[in-house]
Amino acid sequence: MDLGIKERVALVTGGDSGIGLETARILLNEGAKVCLLDLDQDDLEKAKAQLDSLGEVNTVAADLTKQEEIDKARDFIQKTYGTLHILVNSAGITGQTGDFLELADDAWEETFQTNLMSAVRCCRAFIPMMKKEKWGRIVLMASEDAVQPYAEEMPYCSSKAGVLNLAKNLSKAYGSDGILTNCVSPAYIETPMTDAMMEERAEELGVSFEEAVESFLEEKRPHIQLKRRGKPEEVAAVVAFLCSERASFVLGSTYRVDGGSVTGISI
Ligand code: NAD
């Protein structure tokens, strides 16, 4: 299927790793011009080197918790391409986890700043360009955790619930400008984010990495019907579809890529 996005300009935040990197790969294969945004210029250069043969790829380093760095990234996009059509907001952190009573405000604030407010700031910075184009696609990365409670991950779960709500509201506010906003909600994907969780778990339990994954699936993610971790390219395929011309009647939705984890039928 031709996604119909040749020459479209795309910004992928969290773009040098995991789901963001795999999304960038598909968008480039489809002929889009892609700018990767992430925290560290060296890591961005490594990601760019992996993608250079696929098409026109640029990088911009920015910390999305800082408004002035988003302003600089917006100026870079304006100067380099003159516009933006596609925003994939994949940047995110697990943040601090643990007993609710032990998590102070700063734990909540760090997670909300990165997972929710970064998406707010990026959308505010780039929607005006899409409005001028009368065409835009925004994909925000939520999580199964947005609708599925995990008591030891409350800041993360709550921040992702906020992302779901933000996407729905943006779809209502700007759908008539041709800007279609949707969410993708993954669960337990093989990326550096969950690798780090599994390395910590392996150390805590004194087991191998593989044993930590197996026991996590059994004890902590028993609802995942497919009984395995997902792969970043399995999420990226859905994200890329939502960035495309082919998704022209899809907005305000959340697409789960969660191996069947969420059992409810609402949302
Ligand atoms: P990842 O750690 O591989 O990628 C996340 C990227 O975000 C990193 O490169 C990191 O540097 C970047 N980032 C973090 N804070 C940033 C900031 N302040 N400014 C700019 N960049 C920042 O993780 P991933 O698994 O690819 O996660 C991508 C998205 O998917 C995240 O929003 C995550 O919450 C979500 N998600 C992941 C899973 C999973 O199982 N991996 C499940 C559900 C949702």
Protein model, in words:
With 267 residues, this protein is an alpha/beta fold. The chain folds into two domains: 9-189 and 231-257, 3-Layer(aba) Sandwich (Rossmann fold), CATH 3.40.50.720; 191-229. It contains eight helices and seven strands. The chain has helices spanning 18-29, 41-51, 67-81, 105-133, 154-174, 192-205, 209-219, 232-242, and strands spanning 9-13, 33-38, 57-61, 86-89, 136-141, 179-186, 254-257. A seven-stranded parallel beta sheet has the order 3-2-1-4-5-6-7, sandwiched between helices. Helix 3 (67-81) runs parallel beside helix 4 and helix 4 runs parallel beside helix 5 (154-174). The longest helix has 29 residues, at 105-133. The protein is globular. It binds nicotinamide-adenine-dinucleotide. Residues 13-14, 16-20, 38-39, 63-65, 90-93, 114, 118, 141, 143, 186-189, 191-194 line the site of nicotinamide-adenine-dinucleotide. Nicotinamide-adenine-dinucleotide binds at residues 13-14, 16-20, 38-39, 63-65, 90-93, 114, 118, 141, 143, 186-189, 191-194.
Ends apart, CA distance between termini? 27 Å
Strand fraction band? 5-15%
Pattern of helices and strands? EHEHEHEHEHEHHHE
**Top CATH class of the largest domain:** Alpha Beta
Mean pLDDT: 97
How many domains is the backbone divided into?
Answer: 2
Bound molecules: nicotinamide-adenine-dinucleotide
CATH architecture term of the largest domain: 3-Layer(aba) Sandwich
Poorly predicted sequence stretches spanning 5 or more consecutive residues: none
Give the helix tally: 8
What is CATH's topology name of the largest domain? Answer: Rossmann fold
Report the strand count.
Answer: 7
Identify the overall geometry: globular
By CATH's scheme, which homologous superfamily of the largest domain applies?
Answer: NAD(P)-binding Rossmann-like Domain
Taking all Cα atoms into account, the compactness measure Rg is: 18 Å
Q: Major sheet, described briefly?
A: 7 strands, parallel
- Helix/sheet category: alpha/beta
